Amino acid sequence: MILQCDVSETSVLDVIEERFNNKRIYTNVGGVLLAVNPLEKYRIYDESVMAQYQHFNKFAGESNSGKSFNAFQVMKYLATSNNSKVTPKHIEAINTIFNSFGCAKTVKNDHATRFGYCMDFLYYKNTLSGLSLRTTLPLETIRVVSQKAGERNFNVFYELCAGMSSETKASYGIRDQQKFFYLTQGKVGEDGGRDDAANFARLHASLEIVGFSEEQRQIIYKTLATILHLGNMYFRQRRNTTDESEYVEVGNDAELKWASYLLDVDMHSFAPCFTHKITKTDEGVNKLAYSMGQALDARDALAMSLYELVFSWILNRISLHLKCPDHNAVITVVDCYGVERYNNNGLEQLLINSVNEKLQNAFVKQTFFDEIADYVSEGLIFDWKMPSTLDNDKAVDLLCKKPYGLLYLIDDECKFPKASDESYLRHCNLNHLDKNVYGKAKNKDRLQMSVRHFFGTTWYSVYGFVQRNKRCLPGQVVKILAESQNPVVSMLFRPLANGKECADYVVYAAQQFNTASTAMIEKILGGNSHFVRCVKCNNERLPARIDMPSLSRQLKAFCVMETLQFRRAGYPVRIPFERFAQSYRCLLPSDIALCQKQKEIIVDILDGQGIKFANDFQIGSSYVFLRDRLADRLQTIREKTQRDAAHVIQKTMRTYVARKGYLRKRHAIIRLQAGLRGWKARKECSALREQMFKNLSNQTKRNRRLNAYHETLLTSTPDQKCPGALLGCFDVENFTSKEIERSIGESKSKAANMKTTTDYLPMKLKSRVSTIEPVTIEKFAEENFKGHLLEPRREPILTPFLHKENDLDFRLSIEIFKLILKYMNDQALSRAQLDDLARYIGINNPCQRDEIFVQICNQIYRNPDKEATSRCCRLLLQAVGVFAPTENVLPMLISFCGEQRLPLQTQLINTIAWRMNMLESQTARLLPASRLEMGALCGFHNAAVEVASQDGEVYTVEAHPWITNEELVNRVLRHRGIGNPSGWSVEVETEKVVYCPTGSHFLHDVISEIEHGKEENKRSPVVKRQRRQANDSFEMRRRDRSVDAIRPASRNESRRDRSLDSLRNISQSPQMYRRAYREVDEEPDYCYALPVKHKQTNGEAH
């Protein structure tokens, strides 16, 4: 507005009207924001629009001009900052609480704010960290007990009656709002234009948001219900027949009982507080009966005090919930009563208008007088005559100056025993009739006086001034409530009872307003304040309709035209020298700005704007003063210069970032390509190696030779084929007897020593047994046994248990059962003979393996012979460790093993699980169980072997029946921290022979071959090699791979005298074979710092 060419009243009104019609209701008038209330809601308060406005902290205007609404929008904007502890949700909740407890319907405004408040936004390190609420002007408590025609009590009472549930209202004694005296004096109607039920639901939720518990909310509601019951309490005039004195008594005990119940006080001690004045003297306690008026005043005083104290407690609780004790900056928003002028103005209007008179005086002082004083102190030449209409010091003195100001006179009048409204008016006329801002009524019968305010002359009727100014709460009431069982009520009244015992608590409204307004003005003048002048568009409260005469009257009252003219003639923008030079030195060439002093830079910048702006600035002693036109020009040029420089910086930085990103991506692509090519090459190599090992393994299985790989490589006749083992039909019983007899006569090779250990590396087992649905042996027998009952037998069978395809299998099944009977019942067989017999059963008969499992389970099932059962269990454990059952027998076998006792059950289930983890379902052992296994089976322990590496480290590793050489290598390498097992293998050494099996060979097949020494192995050139030849060939092979030497824990302690010096090259092996092992699909249980020690009996290893 200040940049307009014409600043006359007509031009200003036209501009405001045009902006209003375009729904632009905010106008900047010389540093003061003018807000026109359109009496309807605009959608302009989202975050993008809020960012265009400044922070303001003082809102002033007439009633219904939109002060509270604009203050709420500013508070909501402040709460939208990032990382704020106070959110818009909190502001919405506080606004809802204010609308309920602090607002009421008046003649001119349906949502009039009836108190003044100050909301401090507390900042810590530029972040909104808390909020503080306090009242700056007292609440209009007289409204609690009395309302004019067309007005309502505070909104919360109507919301309580409309929104509370029926059960809760019944417990508080709340009925329809028309039944309460305090709510019907204005005769407004049922709802007063508000949805009270919905507003109560919002109030209840808002109290929870700002930290009120359910119990605290119910205490608030109980206090409000108490006020309503107090209003319905009436009194009867009685006469004492003894001394003919009059007294009053409570006319309805029901309301008194409700009030006592809700306040948690004793009704019998509470009732006399309203009918008698109790005083204590030296002679004792005196009781003086109240008159009817005094009783009603005591009742109303308690109602007003309750409401005021509860409202203050709510504000304090909100401040405590959102506190920030260590804040270092504050933005304050102040809102209060607006100017009020009615046909019949009373004490409340005089107090409210007195506060607005002080605010106008503060605005004039800050906007005009302080500005002129700054010009003089800085040595500026400024010729502007202050209009006389701006000076309202006389009106302020008339109202608030001691000792004869109107507010002080009413307080003094109330302190006299026979105070009256007529006496107060006489004192006013006596002291102020000579002042031109004061007037008296021409008719002496009218108790009226007039005050010439800045917004016009207003007449006040002094009728009821004395009664409405003084509020006297009996001291006995304060004492009783301070001792209430309700903790909140007791806390609220305890500070009031700290004075003289039984002394009345007296409050003077004029004194409250005068003290509070003085403190508020001092706070406004003590900080950097911004004013928002709120005006209403018309008096009829019609939306989107502007009334120019009403607007003109308001602009004159708020000195808008004078403010605009003063700011246009003066220099409203002031900038310190240092900040001006720092901010605008970019407008000069860099070589000049770097060589000049601060004052020279300022002069060059201002002179460089041309003759057009020569009168738009002045340079003081420490500030540069600018008019808005020049300030806007400098800011525009500065922003353009900075924008052009930013474009150059952005261009350079974007080039740098783009090139850096391109080089990073190029390097990454090269690494990805190299890695992918290496991966493909390694994958192809791994596939070829796996195929080679698979072919060698298949050849070994076909020939039943463990050393076929080395025989193929080292034999002088490569085309020579290893002879295979043939299975023929023979007399099993006779052959077995001969073998057993021969085993007694032959001299055995030196038996290997076995020892028991609990310190070994365990193998990780992931069992898939639970994925098989078990089948009980009873059900299996019912479906599969052919002419047999499920029971143990001591005689040979005549037919097999399972169906057989040919006669050979039929007869072989019967012979095998005879061997099982011999194993179970022949007590003449030694331990060695039993082991030989157990090894023979089944390993040479692949087609009979399911039959063997069924026969063994049948013999174990409910067998009363414990010795026979024990032998048969060892036979079953050996069988599951040497060959696997088919899918027909597996579910039954799992169920049967799960029913056995511990530790047999664990050994059986784990052995089956190890076999199920093997990928090739047809894989079976080539040789029967070794002596190491047989020794471990006796105690149902795990077998273990010692593994020696080339650097001398020796490990004891668990060796379950189905462990392969490859698994053994991987387990040791993982423990050593070597991740890639490629190129590593094992050698099983004896005193004369070194065995080099492939990775897919079973370890116990190798041990079994060593223990029993098959004839074809004795003819093998690899077997016949001497130790020296083995060392020589190994020295040649170690260049390609590192080798671990393995020996069973049961062999002699003697080892080859091999020098470790020739094997030190293991530390110089390629890095890919020594990198840390990282298991992806399994838990990292392989990486042990120390071997695992099993202390349980069933966890020992042999």
Automatic annotation (TrEMBL):
GO cellular component terms attached to this protein's record: myosin complex
Q: What is a GO molecular function of this protein?
A: actin binding
Q: Taking every annotated instance into account, which residue ranges of this chain make up the domain Myosin motor? A: 1-639
Q: Where is the stretch described as Actin-binding?
A: 517-539
Q: Does the keyword Cytoplasm apply?
A: no
Pfam families for this protein: IQ, Myosin_head, MyTH4
Q: Which UniProt keywords apply?
A: Actin-binding, ATP-binding, Motor protein, Myosin, Nucleotide-binding
Region: Disordered; residue ranges are 1013-1069
Compositional bias segments (type: Basic and acidic residues): 1034-1061
Respond yes or no to whether keyword ATP-binding is given for this record.
Answer: yes
Task: Please state every residue range assigned to the domain named MyTH4.
Answer: 792-938
Family indicated by similarity: Belongs to the TRAFAC class myosin-kinesin ATPase superfamily. Myosin family.
Q: Which PANTHER family match?
A: MYOSIN VII, XV, SH3 DOMAIN-CONTAINING PROTEIN
Protein's UniProt name? Myosin head
